[in-house]
Here is the input.
Amino acid sequence: MWGWLKKKFGDEPQVALADKAAEPNALPTESSLPEAPVPIAEIARVETPNENRADGADTAETVEVTPTPAVALAAPTATDTQKTSWFDKLKTGLSATRNKLGLQAIFASKLDEDTLEQLEAQLLMADCGMPATQHLLDDLRKRWKQAGGEGDPRAMLVDALTDLLTPLEKPFPERTETPFVVMIAGVNGAGKTTSIGKLAKHLQQSGASVLLAAGDTFRAAAREQLAIWGERNNVTVIQQAGGDPAAVMFDAVNAGKARGIDVVMCDTAGRLPTQLNLMDELKKAKRVIGKAMDGAPHETLLVLDGTTGQNALTQVKAFDEALQLTGLIMTKLDGSAKGGVICAIAKERPVPLRFIGVGEGIDDLRPFSAREFAEALV
Here is the structure.
């Protein structure tokens, strides 16, 4: 039999690669596999003496993930200037809330008590809350009376909204320390890690060097997600597999001081304000940051999910009491009809709204402008 096979096919039968590829169940050969990718990061251990730890921070090993020089920010292209303007994007993002208000139908006639009653119902449905709604209605009545019952009610509402929201319009503070330490908190799923990546890009565009601390050591793949953002922005990420998040932040601040980094941003694990043990952990992390550098964190931000409506106001109150917030980031406004909650925050807990997000792109996080928001909403 073997002699017959050798005579039929030769000593070493060969099958063409093209023929093998045509077979539906053929496995790829080693030569057909793509080359191994170049590693995107180099990992180095950050040594921190145990005696330098503070407030019971864990001593688990901390590592940093540093992107290779090949990974860099993309240079602007000619098409970048043709992208949709920010105001147009904001207007589109707030379309759900604007449709909920239905102002075009409400203001089809003159401004009277019936019109104001309809407006009241719509403002409440858009999660403006009763205090802010009553404030806007009283302001609108006053403006209408001063105008002698003439004018454009929608323009008056824009002015009333702008005046209400202006206390929230405070830009991200100037960096007075090196590093300028930013701590970011929020509930689960609010978009903290994504907001950190977008904020890192925003700061880099202003010429700042950035270091990230992966303080979310609880959620699965949280460190990997932040590392991807770090790679995308060419930013080093300090991280730790499990252990105490305060230790990661402690090491990150020290690394930022040693390297002259402009901004160190500390991510934290998501938690509900009703989880008192986790809120205490957050307070501890803030204390540890302060022991790593006097006066830090210099900015304590809360990330809010714009789809949660009035619950966002509850979160602001709880986290502000625990951390003394210096600013807010509102995300996912493009997927919500509850954008009116910003009015409720302005009236009841006016913590500065540093940034708002109306998209998933890396450039879709921008500083809050009261006038732009009011015009896009109305």
User: Anything to note?
Assistant: The longest helix spans residues 130-146. The CA atoms of residues 135 and 347 lie 8 Å apart. The two ends are 87 Å apart (CA to CA). The chain has 15 helices and ten strands.
